[in-house]
Design a protein that fits this description.
5 strands, alpha+beta, elongated, Ribosomal Protein L22, Chain A
């Protein structure tokens, strides 16, 4: 089951963020973070934070190995647009729209094996509890 992280209403145009997303789609999480460190785009920082969030969700919530994580899907969809006005000549105001994006990252990997406690430790603790009673 993949771990998911979503960043909503990011103040970046979906078209500009999509260029950076295409660089890391289908790569391992470690490779993607290195690529985004060296990408000179404003959207790289937000995408990197979203991938780190998905990585944390995978290791903490889904018990996946951090070194085995792969980006299974990463999408950028348009969010709501904010209407703004720019001053123009002769006292007019020209409208424009500030675009926002929703960034969704899915990460999947190998499940960690859960180490069971040694039998000798559990026997010792049960014996000490019996002695106290």
């Amino acid at each position: 089951m993949p771990a998911i992280a979503i960043a909503k209403r990011v103040m970046i145009s979906p078209r500009k963020a999509g260029v950076v997303v295409d660089l890391v789609r289908g790569r391992s999480v470690a490779d993607a973070l290195v690529i985004l460190d060296h990408t000179p785009r404003r959207s790289a920082k937000t995408i990197k934070e979203t991938i780190k969030c998905a990585q944390a969700n995978a290791t903490h919530d889904h018990n996946l190995k951090p070194e085995s994580l792969q980006i299974t899907s990463i999408t950028v969809t348009p969010g709501p647009r904010y209407k703004r006005y720019r001053p123009a000549a002769r006292g007019r105001a020209l409208p424009y729209a500030r675009q926002t994006s929703h960034i969704r990252v899915e990460v999947d990997g190998v499940i960690r094996t859960i180490k069971k406690p040694a039998a000798s430790l559990t026997e010792k603790t049960s014996q000490t509890k019996e002695k106290k009673v």
